[in-house]
Design goal:
- The protein is α+β, with helices and mostly antiparallel strands and 122 residues long.
- The chain has 2 helices and 4 strands.
- Strands 1-2-3-4 form a 4-stranded antiparallel β-sheet, covered by helices on one side.
- Strand 3 and strand 4 form a beta hairpin.
- The longest helix is centred in the last third of the chain and has 16 residues.
- It is elongated, with a radius of gyration of 15 Å.
Length: 122
Amino acid sequence: MYEVTVKTQFSAAHRLRGYDGKFENLHGHNWIAIGTVQARELDAMGVGIDFVMLKERMNKILSKLDYTNINDVPPFDEKNPSVENIAKWLYDELSQVVNTATAKVSRVEVKEFENCGAVYFE
């Protein structure tokens, strides 16, 4: 099994509904998103999945959040935009545009800060 990983970033604000503290207030981050795809086999070039294509697809999905108040963007207009919920959302969105018979999104990591984040995998 092979794993291919790309890292990208976006900037956005959010507020955590129901949080008892300063993070209930609107605040922003320079978020980091890392997507990992597992490939069972390599193609004729010896590639499991194209890095460029994977990063382009991640960036297209994340453009929905970039320079926004995430609380205004569905599904986060109803679901709390915690880093855990954003990681699951990105995993689901990326899986729809990347998964094939030989390659599958295996995990997505989203970080609010360099040292704080969440991973979603199945």
